[in-house]
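User: Fold this; tokens only.

Assistant: Input:
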Amino acid sequence: MYIIVVGGGKIGYYLTKTLVNEGREVLLIEKDSKKVATYEERFGSVVVQGDGCEAATLEAAGAARADVLVAVTGDDEDNLVACQIAKAHYNVRRTICRVNNPKNERIIKDLGVDVTVDATNLMKDLIEQYIPERHMVHLLTMRHADLAIVEGRVTAGSPVLGKVISDVRFPARTVISAIVRQSQLLVASGSTRFEEGDEVIAISHREQEGELQTLFTGEEIAQI
């Protein structure tokens, strides 16, 4: 597997270092000549100077045979352009894009990037998992259509308490996947009845998480 990394900041440096140590075939593209000179001393020929947003640079880097291109510069537009060129002109099978501004994630996905990595939201989701009083936890953001896997706890004031799944009007296109009850995993069905303390695992659109919070807790909970 051949991997091209665009951007030699801290993320690009440590990613390249890790891949080299794992014996992967990798090439790091970085604009800054000083960084390139430093990195060449550590990594050798796997570092080249150039602009990963330019087709000529990607051509010279052998993008036509690359399996993965990872764009991790500090500029969302540069990352997007590098991924688009790799996908459209060199048929790179997998493009991964670092997103610095969370507001840009949706449009970057819509423009054809395979995977986006939003450090801000990743950190927010991690914080949410370690706040014990929260009754809704964002577990995972999925690649397609801004879907997310969330976990909600049914409280005493929940509108769904005592109801079966088929009688609850959930947000459109929400799927209740499973329920954890007293350490037991239950496969959810239409006849499953909610009990206080149930931990409900659902798949839903990210913008619908607030509605699910209200259903499971009976109150509005501000997103972090």
